[in-house]
Amino acid sequence: MSTSSPLNVLFLCTHNSARSILAEVLLNKIGKGRFIAYSAGSSPREGGSPNALGLQVLRDHGFSIEGLRSKSWDEFAGADAPKMDLIITVCDDAAGEVCPYWPGQPATAHWGYPDPSAGEGSAAEKLEAFRQTLHAMRRRLELLVNLPDEKLAKLSLQQSAKDLSHA
Predict the structure, then answer these.
(1) For residues 19 and 22, what is the distance between their CA atoms, to the nearest angstrom?
(2) Where are the domains of the chain?
(3) What is the band of 104 on the pLDDT scale with cuts at 50, 70, 90?
(4) What average pLDDT does this structure show over 146-155?
(5) Rg of the chain over CA atoms, in angstroms?
(6) Which of 40, 68, 74, 110 is deepest in the core (most CB within 10 A)?
(7) Closest residue by Cα to residue 157 from 20, 9, 33
(8) Class of domain 7-153
């Protein structure tokens, strides 16, 4: 991989409303120009609006939320879609779903995170669940963006991404 050609990474979660959106925003911000992140889901949230608490946590941490929307993974399976180098599922439901065919045989990994929108509790407790998810993702994504180029080469990327699922 050269620095002139960033890796395209697609984060998948069933509804593409919380975890995959958080990961997309984080990687685009910390990716140092080496990565371009996208997110999608098999059953995107009706109306296309990401989870409001997820958006609030992103704003609170200084991230832009402009243009974010819940998208179908079909947008990334067509011939005119960006070619993905790495596809990461971030929810257990998406990991078990039958995914579309991804052109170019991208590397894949599953990085499971608990659903921050599933918990009961006060508004503050729910917001804290989103903060914890954001911080957990940031730790793993910082490891990814700091991998040396040889670990991001096509033949090594599959193993590198899987190894980070245990980080």
Answers:
(1) 5
(2) 7-153
(3) confident
(4) 85
(5) 15
(6) 40
(7) 9
(8) alpha beta
